Amino acid sequence: MCFQAAARATTNAKFDRAMKEIGELDVKVLEWLSDKPHFQWSRSHFKDYSKCDILLNNLCESFNSSILEVKEKPILTMLEWIREYLTVKMQQNRDRAAKMWSDKKICPKIKKIVDRNVDKASDCILIKANNWNYDISCYDGARYTVDLVAHTCSCRKWELSCIPCKNGMSAICAQELDLLDFLHSCYQVQTYTKVYEPRMMPMDGAYKEEDQCKVVKDNKHQGVCYNSICPALCILMDAYVFAPSPPPELQPSVKIRAPAPMAPMPHAFVSNPTPSASMKPSASALFIKDGKKFVKVSDLAGVLSSSSNATMQTKGEKKPT
């Protein structure tokens, strides 16, 4: 109870009084609390620019509980779920403001706080200094000063939340002034609507069915082996691996080097047994273009294998089985 009093205190006097009571109960607790920055857990040391007096992180916990079921999923799946969740949530808030709050000026939860402070204002005794400054006395013996021009009260509740406290409400109601003139604009339905006005636009999937079919249909180099030829064969050939005259975007940018110096062999591509310049490549057989002749790779297997074994034996490596 003493800790809650210290955390909820809005003035230094109330905070010091609560801390003194904590010290009388347990000195170690007082020392532990004194080591913590007071502005992190007590309203009495909060700045007033945030327009918020919330002590707990319920806002974060509420969102955390909403995404609890997808936290263990892959990162892309989780992010996509969060995107869809926020899209639906923002649209629901827009619909709520447009359909249910269209005739309201203040958001419902703020309206409840205002009504509660108006009810508590009956406990205050006013002494009017001028049209804008009041001396407020409460039944518990506390006394505060209210400035209607600066929207402040010495209890600091008005400054922290920008919602008139019971002392401010008593002065406002005494002059029958409009409450909207003393309430921050962030609590109005109009501002709420503007906050959720930006849309999260829908997104296409990773693949578009029509576009994907078009790409497959127009792919003239389909079946060409660009980088899936046996790595060992590519190393022995010491050559770029691509089809005859492929488009620039499909040409590889990295050249694979052979472990031992060998005569570079020309380009490799997939073609039919009798390739020609006008033929479209297919996956029937793999040929190596040697000058003006096309040599089947299977015919070169023995030559390449013997050359590779000789090189490995020269380096003292174990002959592969």
Automatic annotation (TrEMBL):
<dbReference type="InterPro" id="IPR007527">
    <property type="entry name" value="Znf_SWIM"/>
</dbReference>
<dbReference type="GO" id="GO:0008270">
    <property type="term" value="F:zinc ion binding"/>
</dbReference>
<keyword id="KW-0479">Metal-binding</keyword>
<feature type="domain" description="SWIM-type">
    <location>
        <begin position="144"/>
        <end position="176"/>
    </location>
</feature>
<keyword id="KW-0863">Zinc-finger</keyword>
<keyword id="KW-0862">Zinc</keyword>
<protein>
    <recommendedName>
        <fullName>SWIM-type domain-containing protein</fullName>
    </recommendedName>
</protein>
